[in-house]
Amino acid sequence: MHQMKPDIEALSESILAYAMERMRMDPPTIDHPLPQRTLAERVGQTITSNGLGGEQALKLFIDTLAPACISEDHPRYLAFVPTAPSEVSTLFDLVVGASNICASSWLEGAGAIYAENQALRWIADIAGLPAEAGGVFVSGGTAGNLSALVAARFDWRQKSPDHDRQRGLIISSRGAHASVGQAAQVMDADIVQSGGHQLTGADVAATIAALPKADRSRLFAVACTAGTTNLGIIDDMEGIGDVCAAEDIWFHVDGAYGGAALAAQSTRALFDGIERADSFIVDPHKWLFAPLDCCALIYANPEKARTAHRQHGDYLEVFYDGIWNPSDYAHHLSRRARGLPFWFSLAVHGTEAYAQAVEMTLDCAREAATMIEAHPNLEMVTEQRLSICVFRRVGWSPEDYKVWSDALLERGDGLVTPTKHDGETVLRFCIVNPRTSRKDIQLILDTL
Ligand SMILES: Cc1ncc(COP(=O)(O)O)c(C=O)c1O
Description:
The chain folds into 3 domains: 6-30 and 33-69, no CATH class; 94-349, Aspartate Aminotransferase, domain 2; 351-445, Alpha-Beta Complex (Aspartate Aminotransferase, domain 1). The chain is 44% helix and 12% strand. The protein has 16 helices and 11 strands. Strands 1-7-6-5-4-2-3 form a 7-stranded mixed sheet, with helices on both faces. Strands 8-9-11-10 form a 4-stranded antiparallel sheet. The radius of gyration is 23 Å and the shape is globular. The N and C termini lie far apart (53 Å). Pyridoxal-5'-phosphate (PLP) binds at residues 81, 140-142, 177, 179, 225, 229, 254, 256-257, 283, 295.
């Protein structure tokens, strides 16, 4: 198993050839899921005592398993939040796999961590975070929000022995991603929902003023959103930052989707106030052209996160020599250097190319909104924001939307799924792929 024998040499050629073929598909087939029973019939049992052999296992993947996975990078995949890795970031993911770096500690992964930290620094700079800001790449926004809020609660508990046995409380908003609520559940903390679709400083101040004294003492964080997943709304971070500073509460910003638009000149001002965040996340696997899975988690004061997250153990003591250990900044220990594909792409292309690529997707979304407005059967439901368009097909029931969405995928034309806005079933485009063109949008709109 651990030797580069001739059959493994041959297999590596086949694997690399397939990887290159997949990368060259322009566009890739979008594909679709298959029922468990169909997969069982077509694939059968793959784990056997003697093994299938490399070519056979690869053939199963190429012929049957891969086509049962949707291609997230297809230019007409506009559902949820797609991913659109740059060519070089995908290529470098192969290198990260081959290098098998454990990027938990400086001792094990200094070179990789140095590079990851430069990529994190760029994000901290476009957000205007202080020079000492720093953090780590984790698997996704869900892990990033949880680790940030764990650090926030730890910091609050450090402030008074009374907090030790108190259940914490977080203020969040209606537009916040489900992962914020999930983090609270994992932490056994409570959430108070504040404001409307956009959370403002006034909403947070009013919610705090209305809290009973016992609840006010449990409040440790405000989790706001810089680009809500459903509508692309950016909360009022200037106002929320003011309230958090005045009330001495941790200010967390979830920019998992929207934070990428910090890189674009046309949208940068919408994020004013973010520079005061205690913690901030953005997912390069969403709109910064990196492959899954990659979330940048950055703290204004990393020392606070380190105290909260560092794992202690006799065998780990060799790590604690004052040099940067990524394992100290989130709920994890072993980690792949998942920030490296993003770093490599940023290093190869430069930040200007990133700014332009984000602008391209923003332009495409603005144009899509104009095309929707001009369409006889369609109406925009909310103002076009960031790279999201939310719209209705006049006269359609929820069932009509589902039938249309299923048929679009079945034909291999795209993936656009219904969402809800104020209880109404509607459609939503989320455009993060610079390969998505006006023609792609037109092709979809022509079926509505
Ligand atoms: C605003 C926001 N936060 C958090 C998440 C969760 O991110 P992940 O799926 O990477 O865990 C998402 C996912 O779409 C998101 O849009």
